[in-house]
Design a protein that fits this description.
With 526 residues, this protein is an alpha+beta fold. Helix content is 30%, strand content 29%. The chain is globular. The model has no long low-confidence stretch (mean pLDDT 95).
Length: 526
């Protein structure tokens, strides 16, 4: 068997989650190997929605400009009851947008995957093996060995310090480890039909959920001329027969006039809610669909996988360069698993609203939801269903701990207006609202911070942007950061590389204590 040189991280699976994860690791200069069984990108869309947190991760890998051009706004969803009238709605979050991106967007998955792969191709320490399958893996105290088989049947071995399975619902890595999936009790057959329209203005630019017992369905307008319908199969319908081309068109005609439509692809899926019982086995991790699957009714399937990638990448980088002990990596599951469980619970709830097949129950549902909407009790902002981090590497009992740092537009030193993250390295940061708050850091804190590679940034609402004595002063143009800090009555935040807040501080004593506690947590986890 030919030997392939050692890597820091081996990734099995080169779908969108594996590609984002590979790019994030590459930004830290790590040596990575990616193994993917397919010869090329699957050329049809599967995921169609992204949220502002996912778009921020695309930004982190250098694809902000591409995504700006590639996405279209998701203008909210109207749930229509049995009588065709609105019973529930989600509206877009109004500006100014907290994370620098529109809160929900649609995209074309193959285009995004191509951009991610092109980006990774620019890193000399990233090797990609296409048409290659994992055959076996073994691990010891210092490394993981993956036996892989190329297209011609040649076997070779990849040795890495860590291995991550991003290899989808039928994950070879998960099965090899013998990790089970907890069933979260959702199991329905749906047909997904992607079409291309010759009349883009023909339908409203918002999503609709058809909550009718006779045939529940969903309509999602994608970018440019992409239009998607998701149609529930009824009890007793054979998924194979339902997916036949003539039946696809027949079902589609129950929702729309099809004269302007060409079917791009249709597929029948079993919508599941599943959660991996374990996300880590020593040096091997699971990510994305390999460790969780959600019904699509909150548009969070791919977003959840992107959050996984963003959560684990910096932790691996810190451990590999000696800034943290290996036990930091346990916080990946501690942070992500409850978050996914919560998101899946919300998606299931919306799926049950849409998919109710009992006419009497549907009528009662319509009455209840319409009353909630009329009274103002119904939550109409979709992003409110995405929780913060509840535990893991965050300060306990701290107001801002576990929340995402807002991303204002700021003026760079050269005068250009940029999103904040574009001017930060993918490292920890202390971010303050005044220069005075930045001066709170003691010499001991400063020394620890420099050893960690941490940044210091003051964001103000007036003055000039500058870089002096290791401190970047940036003037924001939209007031997002200043308002957010004011609302939460803090003057400084300690922020992780994935832009989740470790803690907020309102005094010098607080700040130094929190920095000490963070360093202790990182090194104590050894």
């Amino acid at each position: 068997m030919s030997k392939v040189p050692n890597y820091d991280v081996a990734i099995v699976g080169y779908g969108p989650v594996g590609a984002i994860f590979a790019n994030l690791l590459a930004t830290y200069g790590l040596r990575i190997a990616v193994v993917e069984r397919a010869a090329g990108i699957y050329d049809k869309p599967r995921a169609i929605t992204l949220d502002h947190e996912a778009l921020r991760v695309f930004q982190a890998v250098g694809l902000a400009d591409f995504m700006e051009r590639a996405i279209a706004p998701h203008n909210g969803s109207h749930y229509l009851g049995v009588d065709g009238e609105v019973i529930k709605m989600f509206d877009p979050m109004p500006p100014p947008y907290p994370f620098g991106w529109i809160p929900n967007a649609t995209f074309v998955q193959p285009d995004a995957e191509r951009a991610l792969r092109d980006k990774l191709a620019g890193y000399k320490d990233a090797d990609v093996f296409l048409s290659t399958t994992g055959v076996a893996l073994a691990q010891d105290e210092g490394s993981v060995s993956l036996k892989a088989k190329g297209e011609a049947g040649d076997e070779f071995e990849i040795s890495a310090r860590y291995l991550v399975g991003c290899d989808g619902a039928n994950s070879f890595v998960r099965k090899h480890l013998g990790i089970g999936l907890e069933d979260l009790a959702f199991d329905e057959w749906w047909m997904v039909v992607d079409t291309l329209t010759t009349e883009p203005a023909k339908r409203p630019a918002r999503a609709f959920q058809y909550c009718r017992p006779s045939r529940p369905g969903t309509f999602v307008p994608g970018p440019r001329n992409l239009r998607r319908w998701e149609i529930k199969l009824l009890p007793g319908e054979d998924p194979e027969v339902a997916g036949a081309p003539d039946n696809v068109l027949k079902l589609l005609k129950g929702f729309t006039d099809t004269s302007d439509l060409t079917v791009w692809r249709s597929a029948v899926y079993r919508f599941h809610a599943l959660l991996g019982e374990s996300w880590r086995d020593r040096r091997v991790f699971l990510m994305g669909d390999a460790v969780h699957q959600t019904p699509p009714f909150l548009g969070q399937g791919l977003c959840a996988g992107i959050r996984d990638a963003s959560n684990l990448a910096w932790k691996l980088a810190l451990v590999l360069r000696g800034n943290a002990g290996d036990a930091l990596l346990d916080s990946y599951e501690v942070e992500r698993k409850p978050h996914v469980r919560s998101v899946v619970a919300s998606a299931k709830e919306f799926g049950k609203i849409i998919g109710e097949l009992d006419p009497a129950a549907a009528a009662a549902r319509d009455e209840r939801l319409r009353a909630e909407l009329k009274s103002g009790k119904a939550e109409t902002i979709r992003q409110k269903f995405i929780p913060d981090l509840a535990s893991g590497l965050i300060a306990p009992r701290n107001k801002l701990a576990g929340r995402l740092l807002v991303q204002p537009h700021v003026r760079a030193v050269d005068g250009s207006v940029r999103r904040l993250d574009d001017l930060l390295k993918p490292e920890f940061a202390v971010v303050t609202v005044t220069q005075e708050a930045m001066s709170w850091m003691s010499e001991a804190s400063l020394s620890c911070w420099q050893q960690l590679g941490g940044e210091r940034v003051a964001i103000t609402d007036a003055g000039e942007s500058s870089t002096r004595d290791g401190i970047a002063t940036l003037v924001e143009s939209d007031g997002v950061f200043t308002s957010w800090m004011g609302e939460n009555t803090v003057s400084a935040v300690v922020v992780r590389p994935d832009r989740y807040v470790f803690a907020g501080a309102s005094s010098a004593n607080d700040l130094n204590m929190l920095i000490g506690s963070l360093i202790e947590e990182l090194h104590g986890r050894s």
